[in-house]
């Protein structure tokens, strides 16, 4: 498997939360530390950038227009044309400085978004522990907390039969599975499918931490390992399948 650089040197900080807009052939994503959201047009090759006032963890397009973004402790709606940011929900302050991190829509269109505690160190990665949570914004606008006492709430994915949800807590490095009810949005039967602390992925012992997550048509999980320069593929039932080495070490999302 080969890796091709499509947009070189696009962000000075940590690029996160890529989402492909099939109807417009555009890629939207964020730069966490630079507090920006970016939109790349694959047809014109142009890049648009909007500056926000706080660190931004994720962005997803809305069916009726605009985008949902996690900005600091706010979940907000962004109107790209007017640059107007409308706050929808704000989570309470936990610890030193918690913030929204990764987020995705489930098969029913609900928006799941997690939070994390303050980053105390990047190398090695050290986070204020047990300050993260996992929330869900339902289609009626209600906002619910589903998980508590997380460390770094990260990757999310759902199986094609809509019966299982996968979720990553980057520290301690676990890929978890839940029974998922697509009608109600409830999750249950939490279990660990991959404990990344048991893996030996690199020769130098720097395995990084599991970060972004996606699922392919065969039900395999593809995970970006931040700090290791690897994207790793797992079968949730049998374990490790393959890895792909990336030139840069800090892969955050796939």
UniProtKB/TrEMBL annotation:
The protein, known as: Regucalcin
SMP-30/Gluconolactonase/LRE-like region domain boundaries: 15-240
Any one Gene Ontology molecular-function term assigned to this protein's record: calcium ion binding
Ranges annotated as spanning the membrane: none
Keyword Zinc: yes
Active site residues per record: 211 (proton donor/acceptor)
Residues involved in substrate binding: 101
Keyword Mitochondrion attached: no
Organism, as annotated: Mizuhopecten yessoensis (Japanese scallop)
Cofactor entry: Zn(2+)
Alphabetic keyword roster: Metal-binding, Zinc
Family: Belongs to the SMP-30/CGR1 family.
Cofactor, how bound (note): Binds 1 divalent metal cation per subunit.
Positions with a binding annotation for a divalent metal cation: 16, 154, 211
GO biological process, one term: L-ascorbic acid biosynthetic process
PANTHER family linked: REGUCALCIN
